[in-house]
Write a structure and sequence with these properties.
CATH architecture: Orthogonal Bundle
Number of strands: 2
CATH topology: MetI-like fold
Structural class: mainly alpha
Number of domains: 1
Radius of gyration: 24 Å
Amino acid sequence: MAKGLDAQAKQGYALIAPPFLYALVILAAPLLTILTYSFLTDGYLEVVRDFTVSNYVQVWTDPIVRTVMLRSLMVSALVTLVTVLLAFPVAYYVSFLVRPERKSLWLFLITIPFWTSYLIRVFLWKVILGYNGVINSSLTGLGIIDEPLTFILYNVNSIVITLAHAYAPFAILPIFVALEKIDRALLEAGRDLGESRAMTFWRVTLPLAMPGVLAAVLIVFIPTIGDYVTPELIGGGKIPMIANLIQVQMLALDNRPLGSALAVTAMAIVALVSVVFLLINRRFLKVRS
């Protein structure tokens, strides 16, 4: 019996070894490289292999870095809030109001944005929100405004709109999965006990759907804080986020140690926020079980 278990264990290890080694090389190696560079010294057009923590001191004390980091957190939090608030009604509608045989069609339609490149979608929003774009041309043509609006592009509002649209499907799907797992008998029991639909939603549906909501929050928050394309194109380079600052240090200024320290700091902050949300998610899962 023991030999059989050992043979199965060896087969299991052999099965997972290729993807594990692949993940180790593709994911761990670049991260370790960035971490190593963050403790080295920047020289003229080269990296001096002298250990130092001055890069992290500069990251945490430089007011410009602090401003950009806080802006990145604020924009990501705002994008996450807007995306989840817009995604929840869509997921709720598909889960509770769409007939079972048509749910797959709705999920198929929700994933249509994935068919096009993210960069193309960003450029399309630039066309829509531009000075002579679709919105301004339509409002001007209808006589609603005399001059094109200038506050809908190259600012935080345009970045939030673009990112919320780009990551909406990522938020809809986990919320939909959480809503699908809710036992409809619980909702009927709540209404049988005299609760209104609104109170049943607030006391039963929403708490049971919170694991999906928290998953959507993480799925949206983590990539948006490191987004580079949208602030550069939709923000016009006027509202840099942490990814743009890392790009400037790494490529424009050729300061790879400082750029690596910025990247590691950003990853650490995202990891800390993720751990907090995972702990909250565990609490809701315990309540649900």
